[in-house]
Design a protein that fits this description.
heterodimer; A: alpha/beta; Rossmann fold; 2 domains; three-stranded antiparallel beta sheet; 8 helices; B: mainly alpha; MetI-like fold; binds adenosine-5'-triphosphate; binds magnesium ion
Chain lengths: 240, 259
């Protein structure tokens, strides 16, 4: 059971985001509950990143509500975000994690141990002292994941964490996410890789033009999609 | 220095002789004489150099304490009138030193609001004037540098719930090597200006005379060796400091992985 002040479920109610006079997100109702990972899929520009940013509290909706565990202004202390293109601080790999630990008020005495654990988890133990910006793209992606996990999140939002990775690196990240999900951390991940969604997710949200077209269990989504859009999306001919 | 008295007298006499000589000989002698004053450690010359460095370095330190956080805030804090504030600070970069000198003079003069401090025509007044002169330079250049860094860091720091104060500290720390350039520009400007220090310092021999005010005075008196010696020292200091800062920046950035 979650503590009573849990930030889950994450709920959207009549949530709209407008930029200029364009509506880029328009969600009637969406509930993301604790449990297996949720995959958010959809064509380019369908609003996946926007949805995640709203879910993190980085962006305020133009209209409607977003709640975490029923509260609109819940503290973001136990949420973490992995950006589509993560930016490393101009420090060593270890210091990048140390920074995240410090910002989450983790006492100095335990930080060193946590840094080692997190680097080991993402397979970067040998890179501790290396300037983070000198790591390869895939290594930076894993370091960013470790940095997000340093916040000890209950809700981890990941924006296309495997998009720029080769198959082996993508699988490595997938394995880490599966392990993390096993610890009870709720994962919401956007992806273009339907294979990743199929292997990882418990439920799938299909976005199209800012709207939720379908939100079903992963097994159902991939075998007997309810909507025409979901069928066409999986066939590769649903465009923005 | 522990030179025997006789040597000192000898050196002073010689300096005097050489100085006089240039009035009748050519320009080479002027340079030789300037060089001679430098290597013999002419006390008047070194007092002037020492005071200049003390005043300008202290002013740079004070201006950095104000200007760097101010630049960082202008880079990252969104508030109404930010653009106006940025334009204003940029415009202040071009303040004429004499005008700053005049303002500080009025502030510190006997009947001015801070007249009771009694620091007009002292090195302190010069430090205040130079600090005011270069704070906008450091703030404006720091803002430019840090605004670029902030574009990269903004989302990540927001996702880590970092406060404004924490973000300022992070920007200043991670941008420290690039910020050296801003500090140097401020220090260079402080070292090079005449107008502010001459108005609030008064160019008093042995007390508030700096390299630039001495050069101005000695040139007008026709004592070219001292003026040229000081000019040479000024150039060497500026070049040396830039070279050192450049080296620090290069190595630092490489080690931190910025480049
Ligand atoms: N700040 C903004 N101003 C104007 N339009 C924006 C803004 N942010 C996003 N958009 C638009 O909103 C739409 C959704 O963008 P979003 O980044 O959420 O899409 P996405 O599903 O993540 O796309 P991708 O798969 O390419 O990452 C796009 O058409 C985008 O151009
Ligand atoms: Mg996106």
């Amino acid at each position: 059971m979650r503590a009573p002040d849990s930030g889950l479920p994450l709920q959207f109610e009549h949530t709209r985001v407008e930029a200029g006079n364009r509506r880029i997100l328009d969600i009637e109702a969406l509930t993301i509950a604790s449990g297996a990972p949720t995959a958010v899929v959809g064509p380019n520009g369908s609003g996946k990143t926007t949805l995640l940013r709203i879910g993190m509290g980085l962006l305020k909706p133009t209209a409607g509500r977003v709640t975490w565990g029923g509260r609109e202004n819940a503290a973001a202390t136990r949420r973490a975000f992995l950006f589509q293109r993560p930016v490393m601080l101009m420090r060593s790999a270890a210091s990048n994690i140390d920074y995240a630990l410090a910002s989450a008020d983790v006492p100095r005495a335990v930080r060193k141990r946590k840094i080692s654990e997190l680097l080991a988890l993402v397979g970067l133990s040998d890179f501790e002292a290396r300037p983070a910006r000198h790591l390869s793209g895939g290594e930076q992606q894993r370091l960013a994941l470790a940095r997000a996990l340093a916040r000890d999140p209950e809700l981890l939002l990941l924006d296309e964490p495997t998009a720029s990775l080769d198959p082996a690196a993508a699988k490595a990240v997938e394995d880490i996410l599966r392990e993390v999900a096993g610890r009870g951390i709720k994962i919401v991940v956007t992806t273009h890789d339907l294979g990743t969604a199929r292997r990882l997710a418990g439920d799938v949200v299909l976005l199209h033009r800012g709207r939720v077209i379908e939100h079903t269990l992963s097994g159902i989504f991939f075998t007997q999609p309810k909507t025409e859009e979901a069928r066409r999306f999986q066939a590769g001919d649903l465009l923005i | 220095m522990n030179m025997p008295a006789s040597v000192c007298i000898f050196s002073e006499e010689l300096t005097y002789a050489v100085t006089n000589a240039i009035k009748f000989r050519g320009v080479e002698i002027v340079f030789l004489s300037a060089f001679w004053m430098l290597i013999t450690g002419d006390p008047a010359l070194y007092r002037i150099i020492g005071l200049s460095l003390y005043v300008s370095l202290t002013a740079t330190l004070i201006a950095a304490l104000v200007g760097l956080p101010l630049g960082a805030l202008l880079a990252l804090k969104e508030f109404r009138g930010r653009i106006a504030a940025v334009v204003f600070v940029n415009a202040l970069m071009g303040m004429p030193p004499v005008v700053v000198g005049l303002a500080v003079f009025l502030l510190l003069s006997r009947s001015g609001p801070l007249g009771s401090l009694g620091i007009l025509f002292t090195p302190r007044a010069m430090i205040i004037a130079q600090a005011i002169l270069i704070t906008p330079i450091i703030a404006a250049l720091a803002r430019q540098t840090l605004a670029d860094l902030w574009v990269q860091y903004r989302d990540e720091l927001a996702a880590m719930n970092v406060s404004t104060a924490g973000s300022v500290a992070t920007l200043l720390w991670d941008g420290r090597f690039s910020l050296l350039t801003a500090l140097l520009a401020g220090f260079g400007r402080a070292c090079a200006e005449v107008g502010a220090v001459i108005v609030v310092g008064g160019n008093i021999d042995g007390f508030t005379r700096t390299m630039t005010t001495a050069i101005a005075l000695e040139t007008s008196k026709g004592d070219l060796p001292l003026a040229i010696g000081l000019g040479a020292v000024l150039l060497v200091i500026v070049i040396a400091i830039n070279a050192i800062a450049w080296a620090i920046r290069r190595t630092g950035e490489r080690l931190a992985g910025a480049a």
